[in-house]
Amino acid sequence: MIDNATLKTLHNSISGDVLFDDLHKTIYATDASVYRKIPLAVAFPKDEKDLKILIEFATKNKITLIPRTAGTSLAGQCVGDGIVVDVSKHFTKILDFDEKNKTVSLQPGIVRDELNVYLKPFGLFFGPNTSTSNRCMIGGMVGNNSSGSTSIKYGVTRDKVLQIDAILSDGSQCIFKEISSEEFIKKTKLNNLEGKIYQTIFKELSQEETQNEIKNQFPKETIHRRNTGYGVDEFLKSDLFGGTKPTINVAKFLAGSEGTLAFSTKIKVQLDDLPPTESIMVCTHFKSINESLKATVIAMNHNLYNCELMDKTILDCTKNNRELAKSRFFLQGDPEAVLMLEVSANSIKEAEILASKLITDLEQNNFGYHHPKVYGKDIAKVHYLRKAGLGALGNMVGDKKAVACIEDTAVALEDLPNYIDEFSKVMEKYQQKAVYYAHAGAGELHLRPILNLKKSEDVVLFRKITTETAELVKKYKGSFSGEHGDGIVRAEFIPLMIGEQNYQLLRRLKKAFDPNNVFNKGKITDAFPMDKSLRYEID
User: Fold this and answer.
1) DSSP code, position 146
2) Is the pLDDT of residue 40 over 90?
């Protein structure tokens, strides 16, 4: 048992702070998910030396460290009973910017939108764009492999990660970046923890049986939003493991690992040119969800920069909010769904041509009953409506809430209409009206059942609906976690999603990186139960 005197000694040994008063422990007991665990303490490290001291303390006392930036995670990634390590206070520097090669190196506590304010004068930006972009931080986005509304054009966070400087579980420092296959083999000869990590990856992934099991069990390759477990399928691109690439980058494997493998201190990412200056958003209205999803397949042939969905539940949440109501100007009637379809070009004339072609294609296929075009600053208002939808859901009146448990499923675009049709039947069986919104163009909708997790019968439904949805996603060879991560809510289902052999592979890789379970215990492998440690008292 670690007493307050011991924690006080830890506090005095670092340059930052270790706080263990009830207020801080209560504040950091939860994130944006439905989970709550009272941590032992909350640490605010100032530098890498502090992190090494925290790792040494956790190892000695057999506790875990829970990395945290903004705490916007929806799956419980930042919830745990060890020491929460918040880097949002001191690890906030841009360390290097290379305009020519379009890269930036930074500490994990940089807010995504603030980074883009810095980059805008150079005509560059960091592409992945979550609904929490004005507060989420790059470290959390890397840990979660975040995507957001722009992924159909600019990819996901893993695509952008070039290098991660990290502290390993024994306190040693390591740089993960793109290296040649020959360099990879040399690293397997190192007589330290870094060497053991490379040895384990090589030993495990070299086996043809393992490669085939990954190919057979992991989500379809066409699904670029894929966060189920660790990204071991990323390794199969290497010529060391049956692929064709003469290079390999373990930093991309760390993306999406939810802080369970190493503690990132410096992250180098690839940037993109700012989108074309002129955009038009076509906000097509539909009489059913299914119609909107069939229309998505057609719309995605038009080089869209955004393809987002809002359903009637989301739209109704915005009716009685004075600020959100200002952004409802484009709506006509009472649509069951609206697709936000954005085209961009270097002139408004070119954009008009693209928008008109899109509308004509939809009309010729009898999709949609109203196709208003939105221009200029009004586009931001529509984006705001979509982003604010997540917050509006959280503020539903009463104890019934749209619960984040199955809200992160992704399937191949061509499978989306049939998948959603089957999912709707599951909801009907449980007398549920789910919420449908977000990234239709990427094959991912945020599907949320409306439950009262203060009632035991709804907690039972919480598990049943999640389990049946996992089985349905597996049927379509989809990803149970597209962008929000496994955390607590989905990690329990990883063996189902990728097969028991692959799951045991993940456990061995976790053991190689973190033999003492110092980093974020209970996430991805050896998961906490998904229906325990809820933030509500159950009737």
Assistant:
1) -
2) yes
Contact 537, 84 (CB under 8 A): no
Contacts of 322 (CB under 8 A, 6+ apart): none
Under 8 Å CB-to-CB from 379, ≥6 apart: which residues? 279, 280, 281, 342
Assign 258 to helix, strand or coil.
coil
Q: Which two tokens stand for residue 280?
A: 């038009």
Question: Could you identify the residue written with the tokens 């789910």?
Answer: 434
Could you tell me if 354 and 324 are in contact, meaning their C-beta atoms sit under 8 angstroms apart?
no
Q: Supply φ then ψ for residue 359, to 5 degrees.
A: -65, -45
Q: What is the DSSP string of 92-127?
A: --EEEEETTTTEEEE-TT-BHHHHHHHHGGGTEE--
Q: Which residues pair with 17 in a beta bridge?
A: 44
394 pLDDT exceeds 70? no
* 285 membership: H or E segment, kind and range: strand 278-286
Whole-number Å distance between alpha carbons of 34 and 283:
32
Give residue-wise pLDDT tens across range 423-462: 999 999 998 877 787 788 888 888 888 888 899 998 999 9
Residue 537 has a pLDDT of 76
Residue 1's Cα: distance from chain center in Å?
34
Tokens encoding 422: 């089957």
Residue 395 confidence (pLDDT):
66
In this predicted structure, what is the pLDDT of residue 214? 97
What is the per-residue pLDDT for 449? 84
In sequence order, which residues have a C-beta less than 8 Å from that of residue 356 and are 6 or more positions away? none
Q: How far apart are CA 387 and CA 405, in angstroms?
A: 19
Is the confidence at residue 372, as pLDDT, over 90? Answer: yes
- Any bridge partners for residue 163, and if so which? 177, 268
Q: How far is CA 282 from CA 151, 370, 404, in A?
A: 18, 9, 29
